[in-house]
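Here is a protein:
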Amino acid sequence: MTMKNVTHIDGAELRRIAETRYGGNSEMKSNAGSETDRLFHELQVHKIELEMQNEDLCKSRDALETALEQYTNLYEFAPVGYFTLDRTRTISRVNLTGASLLGVERSRLIGMSFALYVVNTARPAFATFLGKVSTSISKETCELALLRESGKPLFVQVEALISEPGQECLITLMDITRRKQVEEALDRMGAEATKELEKVTEAADNALLKMEEAEAEAEAEAEAESESESEAEAEAALLMVAEAVENARIRAAVGAESI
């Protein structure tokens, strides 16, 4: 915020300028040196001094009004909420942004305890935070969930500072609701992704187990088939031996008869 510099003229300089202005006015020039003329001269010069002082005061007033307007705009329409709490921690001042954050008319906020707009579960932590602020010489920060009149959630970053020990508490609120919603969405997505990964891992383990069981069954069946084939081959060999023995016996018997 800038404010125009207003030049204040000291008494001697003011007198000199007034004398110059009076002397430059041909209608006010006096050629006589009587007491009356001297008094008239003083009155005219003093009148000019008063006019110059009035101009100076008007410039100062305009500069102060401009500065006040700029300060008011910066305070009222800042992107953050400004709250001033008195010694009992009730709201004594609040800017338009702060009232807008809570969704409550400013006139209804004045005189209300700020803690009433803190969610019930966070009030003990907020009381501890204010106690810390009261004994600290530096700015303290925390994150807080507040109650909007509309019922919609409001998460804020709080910066608090005591103006003087045991006196007013100056609070700045920055809306971080969007950031909190994004963080919560990311947390949910992460949890869901973890569950899905666990399901996929479990399904993969089950599939691997079934494959191992199938391989074991196939090996068992292969061994069983191999044993069955071996037994069949043995039986066939025995039959061939028995047949050969029988044929030999028959040939021996025929040979004996022919003798």
Notes: The chain has three domains: 11-76, 81-175, 177-239. The CA atoms of residues 91 and 232 lie 102 Å apart.
